[in-house]
Amino acid sequence: MANAIQTVAVYCGSNNGYGESYKKSATDLGKVLAKRQINLVYGGTNKGLMGVLASSAFERGAHVTGIITDRLKAKGQVHPNLSTLETYPTMQSRKARMIELADACIMMPGGIGTLEEFMEVWTLNQLGETSKPLGVLNTDNYFGNLISFIDHMIEQRFLPSAHRNGIVVHSDPEELINLLIKFSPVTVKKWLD
Ligand code: AMP
User: Fold this and answer.
1) From CA 162, how far away is CA 73, in angstroms rounded?
2) pLDDT tens-digit map of 61-97
3) Centre of ligand 1 from the C-alpha of residue 178, in Å
4) Closest by alpha carbon to 108, among 4, 17, 186?
5) Is the shortest distance between the CB of 51 and ligand 1 below 6 Å?
6) What is the whole-number distance in angstroms between the Cα of residue 110 and the centre of ligand 1?
7) What is the reported pTM?
8) What's the longest Cα–Cα distance across the chain?
């Protein structure tokens, strides 16, 4: 059965990364979201790829919700062009709200914040607390080493092999959204012993 995806949460770098390809990829993802009339939920800042993605989606008519902490807002890091802005007192409450609004979550290139936020949702899915379709936008194979490490977890029996299907991976935003629509949650239990 196809998943109805009206709103996507995107986790990505508050830096731009090296070269032009990551910025291009953020722009392209914003274009695809706007074209497909999918709402964007993200961290609310104008910094790095987060800002590039939000600008691209907003300029093309997508509804963009920024969800930021009071502290980051006070630092003046809110994106000037958002459809909706919500502020929360803590990173924890902010992340919970992003998950609550999202029909699916995407990670694109970023740093430890990006990884942590995406892994939190994967962990919640694994424990059966959520069942969000999860996608990795693998621009220029940025996540190749992470995917190898996930395979290592499976080989070393810290992750059941069926859970490799708990995320879909593609370098093209349009194809990634198509995979999220077809995504089936993993129902195999997480414990191997
Ligand atoms: P990083 O990948 O370490 O650059 O962190 C990016 C992730 O952390 C994003 O998905 C955001 O949710 C959060 N984050 C980091 N910096 C900011 C910021 N200036 N404003 C809002 N969220 C941020």
Assistant:
1) 40
2) 999 999 999 999 999 999 999 999 999 999 999 999 9
3) 26
4) 17
5) no
6) 8
7) 0.97
8) 51
